[in-house]
C-alpha cells in the first residue's frame, strides 16, 4: 500500500524541480505544434495527390505523426523523476526517510503515472484537434471525435504515453543518470521509425512486436496482432522494466 505522506513528498520533489514542470508544459506545447505542422503538411500532400492516393488518405494517421516525437518527451519526464534525485544526491536521504525501498519506488511510479496521464490526455487531444483543424482549413479530409477509430486513439493514446513515462522512470532508476537514460530511451523509441532501411523481414518484425510500435498500432487499429495482445506487449515490457528497476534499487546502494 502506498503511503500518502511519501506520495506527497514525491510530488513536492517533482514540483520543486523546474525542468520537470517545464517539460510537462513542453509536452503540451509540442503536441499542439506538431499536430498543426503535420496537419498542414498532410493537407499539402493531399492537394497534390493522385485520385488513388486521395482514396487511400488517412487523416488520423497523417495528422498524428507527431506522437512519435512527443513520446520522447513523456519518456524523458519519467526519467527525470528518478535521475534528478541521483543527480542532486537526495536519493540516499529519501531512502532513509521512507525506510522501505519498495514503498519509495511505488510512490515514484504512482506519482509518475498521476502526472503523466493528465499531461498525456492534454497532449494527445490537442494534437488531434490541431491536426484535424489544419486539415479542414486546407480543404483536406478530416475527422471528428465521434468518427470510427478516433475515440480509441483519444482514450488509449494517453495510456500508451503514461506507460512510456513509467518506462522512462525504470530507465532512470536503472542507469541513474539523466543523459544516459534519455539517450537510451530515445534510441529505443525511435528504432521502429529508423528501421525502414533494414531487411524486410526484420522491419516487419520490429513494426509488429517492438513495444511502443505494437501499442501505437493497437491504438490506431493497424496491428497485425489482436489489439489486446499488441497492447499487452507494451504493458508486459514496462512491467519487466519496473521489476528490474526495483531489484536494482533494493540491492544496490543509493
TrEMBL record:
Coiled-coil residues: none
Q: Which domain of life is it from?
A: Bacteria
Report whether Transmembrane shows up as a keyword of the record. Answer: yes
Q: Which residues cross the membrane?
A: 21-42, 62-82, 109-130, 150-175, 182-202, 228-249
Q: Does the keyword Transport feature in the UniProt annotation?
A: no
Annotated keywords: Membrane, Transmembrane, Transmembrane helix
**In its UniProt entry, what is this protein called?**
ABC transporter permease
Protein's organism: Nonomuraea rosea
Amino acid at each position: 500500500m502506498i503511503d500518502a505522506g511519501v506520495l506527497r513528498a514525491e510530488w513536492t520533489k517533482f514540483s520543486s524541480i523546474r525542468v520537470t514542470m517545464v517539460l510537462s508544459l513542453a509536452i503540451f506545447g509540442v503536441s499542439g505544434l506538431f499536430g498543426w505542422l503535420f496537419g498542414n503538411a498532410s493537407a499539402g500532400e493531399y492537394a497534390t495527390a493522385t485520385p488513388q492516393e486521395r482514396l487511400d488518405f488517412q487523416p488520423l494517421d497523417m495528422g498524428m505523426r507527431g506522437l512519435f516525437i512527443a513520446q520522447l518527451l513523456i519518456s524523458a519526464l519519467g526519467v527525470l523523476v528518478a535521475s534528478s534525485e541521483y543527480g542532486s544526491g537526495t536519493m540516499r536521504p529519501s531512502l532513509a526517510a521512507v525506510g522501505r525501498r519498495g514503498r519509495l519506488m511505488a510512490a515514484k511510479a504512482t506519482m509518475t503515472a498521476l502526472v503523466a496521464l493528465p499531461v498525456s490526455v492534454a497532449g494527445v487531444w490537442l494534437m488531434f484537434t490541431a491536426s484535424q483543424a489544419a486539415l479542414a482549413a486546407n480543404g483536406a479530409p478530416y475527422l471528428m471525435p465521434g468518427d470510427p477509430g478516433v475515440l480509441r486513439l483519444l482514450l488509449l493514446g494517453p495510456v500508451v504515453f503514461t506507460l512510456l513515462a513509467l518506462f522512462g522512470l525504470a530507465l532512470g532508476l536503472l542507469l541513474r543518470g539523466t543523459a544516459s537514460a534519455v539517450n537510451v530511451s530515445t534510441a529505443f523509441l525511435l528504432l521502429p521509425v529508423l528501421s525502414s532501411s533494414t531487411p524486410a523481414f526484420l522491419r516487419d518484425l520490429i513494426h509488429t512486436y517492438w513495444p511502443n510500435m505494437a501499442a501505437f498500432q493497437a491504438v490506431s487499429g493497424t496491428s497485425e496482432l489482436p489489439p489486446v495482445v499488441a497492447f499487452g506487449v507494451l504493458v508486459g515490457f514496462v512491467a519487466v522494466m519496473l521489476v528490474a528497476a526495483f531489484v536494482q534499487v533494493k540491492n544496490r546502494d543509493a
